Target: HIG1 domain-containing protein
Amino acid sequence: MGDPLYILAVLAIAAVVVVLILGLGGFGKGGAFNQKYANKLMRLRLLFQFIAVALLVAYVYLRGQGGQ
Model:
């Protein structure tokens, strides 16, 4: 639980959730915010998802190699 890689992975997942909620909220409300930030939020979500998956894969790989 105190593994730094695990903590980073959890934080990356939390960042994905926050950006996803912001994007869904903006999409639901529509208007100027959605027009201005919809694509930026989607790109940011994809970046955070990539980071989260990479961290999770690294964590699982290192745990399997006896890295912990």
Q: What stands out?
A: The helical segments are 4-29, 31-64. The radius of gyration is 15 Å.
